[in-house]
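Colleagues,

For the teaching module next term, I've prepared a clean inverse folding example: a structure given as tokens, and then the sequence designed for it. I'd like students to try predicting residues themselves before seeing the answer, so please don't circulate the second half yet.
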């Protein structure tokens, strides 16, 4: 009956393009769990249930009566089913990573194992870059791009020529090159086709007819196809579906994008029960990607924070990758590494807002045709490390604010190191970078977020142990809300943060 109703509903929707709600009335034979006795609260109903034979027995008797099955075959099928359950349970239990026993002292590196990103080739050829960019500028005859959008698409070719590739174009190169490599890509989220900030334009709409055109679909080949959709504003359902899709298609890059990072709060159950712990609980691997816009630009408490602290609190036993890249090229290599590495761990990316179009946050074409993802970006080779008295560790957009102020203040005794990967912490690269500077240089973690939020709670716990040296923090005061509700207060406090992190030369 259930299968018949399901098929009927599907056929109805396919024929009439209308949704169907199936109202299925069920009951629990055994109650909520092994210790529950539902007859305490529903005695009459459970008298009826106890008197009724189970669905399995009724269906088995029906099959035997029709001659579709013999009693021996039915008993053999039941034994086989029970054996499969026992085998699956044993395999999953034996494959699980067991937690340490109480009192066990773990080495600092456990749960922060370094990943060799350079072991996977993520660079692409100049010809691949050209082919991908051509999809943006060579629009089919008869298709009219909006006159205000056409120059933006044309600029993507100019960016390549002038070595000023922005964030959206870097993402475009990542997706397009994965399609060229034969990898399917599925990008779904809230206003994802256009991009929340009008930066992506993965789907073009004819100015006169309203017809859709997806330029990257020109790179589809066989099973490697590009799917891009705007999802409904139900984070729980949409993110859960993409998690399931990533499990079913481990060869694909599957990403769900929030309109703003804190919208992921509506899917917290999916994050807690599946994305962060599915491998530990069931041995279930997933490469799902969450793209969560994050950054403090004075927009208030509801559109600033993607709640970095919540994700880092869930990180353990190498269960996922959490990153906050600051350049288009690093984001490009990160996405390609996620699809090509075979690591099969969820990837959480805190994506930018204001630096989507910032001139300081662009990458040269050579950074896409060479190199790999950098979990940490230190000072350039020509930087005078011997004069450093303070090393500031930071991540995300805040780096550009600090670097701009340092240049204006000529504060050359402060080095700024970007931590692009927040989990696993790239402690080996950080130790190598810190070895460039005097041993007595002060080590500081600086962030835009309040003290009890952002990356600091995790870094305060792990970095002293991993690096073998103390560090202090420059943050906003602890707060119950992610950010100030006043742009004026934000600007003032943000300036104070920067000046505290980069002390004036004296």
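(Answer key — instructors only)
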């Amino acid at each position: 009956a259930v299968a018949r109703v399901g098929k009927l509903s599907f056929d109805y929707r396919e024929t009439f393009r209308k949704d169907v709600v199936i109202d299925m009335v069920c009951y629990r034979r055994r109650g909520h769990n092994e210790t529950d006795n539902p007859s305490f609260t529903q005695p009459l109903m459970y008298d009826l249930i106890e008197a009724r034979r189970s669905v399995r027995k009724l269906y088995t008797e029906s099959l035997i009566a029709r001659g579709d099955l013999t009693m021996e075959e039915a008993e053999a099928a039941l034994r086989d089913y029970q054996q499969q359950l026992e085998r699956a349970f044993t395999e999953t239990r034996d494959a699980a990573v067991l937690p340490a026993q109480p009192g066990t002292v773990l080495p600092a590196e456990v749960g922060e194992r370094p990943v060799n990103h350079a072991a996977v080739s993520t660079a692409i050829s100049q010809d691949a870059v050209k082919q991908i960019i051509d999809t943006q500028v060579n629009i089919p005859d008869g298709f009219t791009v909006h006159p205000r959008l056409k120059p933006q698409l044309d600029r993507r070719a100019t960016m390549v020529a002038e070595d000023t590739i922005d964030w959206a174009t870097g993402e475009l190169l990542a997706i397009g090159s994965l399609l060229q490599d034969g990898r399917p890509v599925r990008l779904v989220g809230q206003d994802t086709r256009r991009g929340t900030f009008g930066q992506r334009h993965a789907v073009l709409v004819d100015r006169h007819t309203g017809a859709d055109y997806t330029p990257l679909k020109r790179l589809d080949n066989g099973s490697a196809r590009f799917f891009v959709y705007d999802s409904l504003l139900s984070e729980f359902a949409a993110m859960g579906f993409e998690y399931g899709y990533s499990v079913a298609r481990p060869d694909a890059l599957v990403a769900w994008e929030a309109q703003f990072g804190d919208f992921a709060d509506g899917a917290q159950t999916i994050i807690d029960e599946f994305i962060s712990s599915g491998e530990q609980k069931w041995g279930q691997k997933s490469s799902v990607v969450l793209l969560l816009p994050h950054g403090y630009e004075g927009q208030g408490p509801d559109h600033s924070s993607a709640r970095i602290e919540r994700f880092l609190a869930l990180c353990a036993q190498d269960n996922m990758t959490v990153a906050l890249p600051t350049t288009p090229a690093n984001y490009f290599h990160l996405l390609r590494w996620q699809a090509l590495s075979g690591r099969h761990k969820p990837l959480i990316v805190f994506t930018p807002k204001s630096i989507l179009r910032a001139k300081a946050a662009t990458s040269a074409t050579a950074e896409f045709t060479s190199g790999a993802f950098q979990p940490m970006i230190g000072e350039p080779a020509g930087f005078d490390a011997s004069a450093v008295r303070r090393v500031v560790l930071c991540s995300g957009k805040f780096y550009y604010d600090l670097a701009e102020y340092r240049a204006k203040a000529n504060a050359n005794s402060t080095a700024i190191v970007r931590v692009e990967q927040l989990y696993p912490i790239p402690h080996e690269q950080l130790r190598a970078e810190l070895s460039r500077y005097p041993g007595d240089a002060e080590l500081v973690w600086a962030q835009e977020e309040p003290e009890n939020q952002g990356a600091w709670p995790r870094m305060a716990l792990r970095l002293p142990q991993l690096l073998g040296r103390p560090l202090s923090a420059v943050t906003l005061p602890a707060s119950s809300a992610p950010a100030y509700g006043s742009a004026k207060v934000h600007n003032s406090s943000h300036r104070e943060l920067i000046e505290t992190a980069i002390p004036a030369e004296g």
